[in-house]
TrEMBL record, chain A:
PANTHER family found in the cross-reference section: ALDEHYDE OXIDASE 1-RELATED, XANTHINE DEHYDROGENASE
One annotated GO molecular function: oxidoreductase activity
UniProt organism field: Actinophytocola xanthii
Gene3D superfamilies linked to this entry: Aldehyde oxidase/xanthine dehydrogenase, a/b hammerhead, Aldehyde oxidase/xanthine dehydrogenase, molybdopterin binding domain
Biased amino acid composition, Gly residues: 794-805
Chain spans, region Disordered: 794-814
Protein name: Carbon monoxide dehydrogenase
SUPFAM superfamilies for the chain: CO dehydrogenase molybdoprotein N-domain-like, Molybdenum cofactor-binding domain
UniProtKB/TrEMBL annotation, chain B:
Pathway noted in the entry: Alkaloid degradation; nicotine degradation
Disordered: region residues: 152-175
Entry's Gene Ontology molecular function annotations: 2 iron, 2 sulfur cluster binding; metal ion binding; oxidoreductase activity
Gene3D superfamilies noted in UniProt: 3.10.20.30, [2Fe-2S]-binding domain (1.10.150.120)
Domain 2Fe-2S ferredoxin-type: 1-77
UniProt keyword Oxidoreductase, yes or no: yes
A Pfam family of this chain: Fer2
Superkingdom assignment: Bacteria
InterPro entries: 2Fe-2S-bd (IPR002888), 2Fe-2S-bd_dom_sf (IPR036884), 2Fe-2S_ferredoxin-like_sf (IPR036010), 2Fe-2S_ferredoxin-type (IPR001041), Beta-grasp_dom_sf (IPR012675), Diverse_Oxidoreductases (IPR051452)
Entry keyword set: 2Fe-2S, Iron, Iron-sulfur, Metal-binding, Oxidoreductase
Protein name in the entry: Carbon monoxide dehydrogenase
Amino acid sequence: MTATVEPEIGRARLRKEDARLIAGRTRWTDNLTLPGLLHMAILRSPMAHARITAIDVTVARKMSGVLAVFTGADLADEQGSLPCAWPITEDMKSPSAPSVAVDRVNFAGEAVAVVVARSAYEAADALEAIDVDYDELPVVLDMEAAVAEGADLVHEDLGTNTSATWVFDSAEAGTGSDVEQAIAEAEVLIERTYRQQRLIPAFMEPRSVVVDPTGEQFTMWSATQVPHILRVMLAMTLSVPEHKVRVIAPDVGGGFGGKLQVTPEEVLTFLVARRMGKAVKYTETRSESILAAHHGRDQLQKLTLAARRDGTVTGLKVELLADMGAYLRLVSPGVPILGAFMFNAIYKFPAYRFVCTNVFTNKTPTDAYRGAGRPEATFAIERLMDELAAELGVDPIEVRERNWIRHEEFPFTTVAGLTYDSGNYEAATAKAKELFGYDALRAEQRERRERGDSVQLGIGTSTFTEMCGLAPSRVLGSLSYGAGGWEHAAIRMLPTGKVEVVTGSSPHGQGHETAWSQIVADQLGVPFEDVEVLHGDTQSSHKGMDTYGSRSLTVGAMAVVRAADKVKAKAAKVAAHMLEASEGDVEFEAGAFRVRGAGATAKSVSIQDVALAVFAAHDLPDGVEPNLDSEATFDPENFSYPHGTHLCAVEVDTETGRVDVRSYVAVDDVGKVVNPLIVEGQVHGGLAQGIAQALFEEAVHDESGTLLTGTFADYLVPSAADLPTFTTDRTETPATSNVLGVKGVGEAGTIASTPAVVNAVVDAVRHLGVSDIQMPCTPMRVWQAIRTGQTDAGGLGNEAGGGLGSIDSSGGAR
Amino acid sequence: MRITVTVDGTTFTDDVEPRQLLVHYLRERLGKVGTVVGCDTSNCGACTVHLDGHSVKSCSVLAVQADGSEVTTIEGLARDGRLHPVQQAFHDNHALQCGFCTPGMIMQSIDLLADNPDPDEQAVREGLEGNLCRCTGYQNIVRAVRAAASTMSGGAGPEAEQVAPASNVAGGGDR
Ligand code: FES
Ligand code: FES
């Protein structure tokens, strides 16, 4: 049993998941088919804001293969309102959110009718035969205009475009002093407005859902990150008894927060299948996905940082406008609030105030996208630290060092009220500088500046932290979130000694099957190969909170560890009986029970022996149940705080504005590592998405609210040719908040990288009078900044290629 | 229209709608669901298969255009239970996470290696430009393709689909 010799945790195991995926033996939702399966297609509004005055479906209904056409009016009585689980304030305004519009559309892409047909082709054909009359209403797109006096309204009945205003003030909370005073007394003030452009999660597998109503339970297969939450929410939204619904997330092709949702499409497929009494499938096209699946980011950040001349920061004030889009989806309102705790980052601010105003516009709703609130915060503070350094004429790393929490100061309670358990910013930074060749690159930068090279070098720093492992239930309660943050796991010991692990985490690319197998192999001393991980089906894994917020390892795997502890405790009783010893005298090591101190050659019983003995149940101690199976629910006591230092060098062609990432070094501290291969992969993917925000991606609307970046030809998800090779490394300070010492890694790369890249771009051209370039830093924007010396370059630019500089001046937030 | 196509070694004769895309024919008619659809504008490459030995995006080919041709999908790569070296390299180098882009990536990589048996990093990146991956940041995909190049003896077109002696089968060995 080699697996018991070397610990599995820390080992670069190749993934169990791969065998099927590399062979095309996959179970994507869209691969599934059932006898008599019907296909649904959705007609979507081309208008961003309009009254529906008439819908004529008569022609469509008569077309070949078309079984039914439903409009909003047909489904109004049963569709309920899509759930929002995070009412951030008591007076939060939340419009009713239909899955299919009834008399009014509030964003372009909203469903207005559905067709059910024998085939997907026939369903799509029939969409074209539906006639909808719209009466246009004024569109609300710009957040600042939306909250101004006398603005047109997205939802007339709410009487305002402001959904809620959420405030954290360190003086009021008792976690720090008064920021206004800090600002009044500041020796240096850095005031900036940054824009977090709207992004599209762009998971590669389009969303798909199949509902089979023909059994005793409704079975829903969905390309979702959250099968458990989806089940509860369907029950609550549609008044269908929870025990009559089973949700399965089969193979799911990426999510990044984009599949953390209870979608209109899921509800509609459910309603239609129930009506028809037949299984129904809906699979979105990519264009539909880009248009109608929730978007991410989209904030306007007004920032004031106060500091002393020596570089010590004294206060931070953050005023946000956050675009919710037309409706509040599952956790839309809470996304910017997650950032509230992160603007102060790793720095010892004595005073802090955060005010966020959530705003409705006639755009696709926003919600979680990788990092959710934390990338926005990290971008703002890391950009500000660079600005402070520039203002003071000191090295950006030096100014950070002056202010960050020193390693000997942990645990450290921040001005935002969180307690960071562990970290070592000095170590990560030292390692990153060395790998990067920081001093040599600075020297080259000076040399190029002096020479007046047309290609300038810029260096960007991001010393980030984040809070993840969502989340301690009582903290979620204090933030008015509608559920807890625990996770559940169960372990089943099979008679032959094999192990089934049931987890409430719901992977969609993260490699849980491999990582959980490694953890359980160590815990129970069984071979890695003998562990099977079951997930993503509410029938086998009945309890769970699913996967998002880098929570699976820090919360989900901790539940697995606790369940394993219980298995071992149960097994110890039986093993002692088998060894004819008292329970207190036996110890468990490397998969076997022995009498303590009896030596390695003494009689032992393996956990597999115990499993078989329990199965037979012929000779168990009195009162012992013939069952080793155990379950546990783990509620974390704190978040986890991965951190790291990322350094980016870019070359900027000052004649064309072109940006090339020359080198990128990421040193991350994610605590103990279960599988370094998986960790590295998560960092790579995270970096790609963060860099894409800095340089390529942006969802752009025109003045009528039409999404201009509606395909992969316009919305620039980077290809292999657009990205550099990353240098990744790690430092390790174990988390003290869980026994595994793990911190979570899913979002770190995305959170850290965006400011590192933008800081580098600005650094390359700062000597030309540039202090900011809006994201994405396209050639057009960079060139414009250089030419005009505009401190706030961006705004105009509408060349083809979507994200390549095409931000509409009147559309998105300026 | 009636077409005859050989897919992964089996010949099929079918009546198809003239407008049916090859990818839909493969998935819906033949059950070759290993090949997937990631977009509707021929940008993502998830649907990549080989048509007479060369990679094509099967969402941009009509089924009728494949009449008389040979199609290889991800499901037809492994022979006698042995993975194709490129499949093996993707596993060995952790070149996939969710795996949705993987079939297309592998098919495109094989085509790339057929044209250039020893590509440098830049050549791999450019050769995969038409295939999007949202999970991996591409680094390990590039590494996998270069690793496969070194284990394959090279060769163009369909020859590249032959299986070189592969060491082990995917399923959780050590790196
Ligand atoms: S599905 Fe063929 S290129 Fe995207
Ligand atoms: S592995 Fe998920 S898209 Fe490539």
